[in-house]
Write a structure and sequence with these properties.
With 176 residues, the protein is α/β, with parallel strands linked by helices. The chain is built from six helices and seven strands, in the order βαβαβααβαβββα. Bound molecules: flavin mononucleotide.
Length: 176
């Protein structure tokens, strides 16, 4: 089954990209890296739908069986880069799709606002944001990688996502 992971950090050296790349490598998930493939600011013009980056984004999410959104927490919300990417998408890509949410905060209690913000937006596109979620902080990373403990936490989220992906596949057979 196909998974797509989005790195919602616009920072090339961001921690969110580290976890997104870990998921892409370990689970052979397609990676949409917003630090590497920036999208224009959504303006609602039909012509934006012809841009290769927008077509690529829409096609990958449409074809995915499950999606992982990874976002930094910036000012108590998901990144503007991720929200802008999501504005190019809607229920035609996301309806019934299981989505896992991972936030990277600055420590302390940071991160939960970005998770709640992503969950609200996923409701807006009729996605199925799964209950298990994860907050990471600077100590979740070491030497440019995720720590062993973080890898285990991420793996548990992906295992849960896969359960929902299987459930969604079965549900689809009941409604065809
Ligand atoms: C503009 C900005 C706003 C931030 N706001 C928050 C915040 O509200 N809560 C928090 O926990 N961390 C906040 N941080 C810290 C980031 O979440 C933290 O540095 C995280 O590693 C960012 O992800 P990135 O490294 O992928 O960019 C903020 C950082 C920036 C640059």
């Amino acid at each position: 089954m196909k998974m797509v992971v989005i790195n919602g950090s616009p920072r090339k050296s961001g921690r969110t990209g580290i976890v997104a790349r870990y998921i892409a490598a370990k689970y052979s998930a397609a990676l949409i890296d917003l630090s590497d493939q920036p999208l224009p600011l959504y303006n609602g013009e039909e012509s934006q739908g012809f841009l290769p980056a927008v077509q690529h984004l829409r096609q990958l999410i449409q074809q995915a069986d499950g999606v992982i959104l990874c976002s930094p927490e910036y000012h108590n919300a998901m990144s503007g880069a991720l929200k802008n990417a999501l504005d190019f998408l809607g229920s035609s890509q996301f309806e019934h799709k299981p989505v896992a949410l991972i936030a990277v905060g600055g420590g302390g209690k940071g991160g939960i606002n970005a998770l709640n913000n992503m969950r609200t937006v996923m409701r807006g596109v009729y996605a199925n944001a799964i209950p298990r979620q994860l907050v990471l902080e600077p100590s979740s990373f070491a030497e440019g990688n995720v720590t062993v403990e973080t890898a285990e936490q991420v793996d548990a989220v992906i295992a849960e996502l896969k359960r929902y992906m299987n459930a969604a596949k079965w549900l689809k057979t009941q409604h065809e």
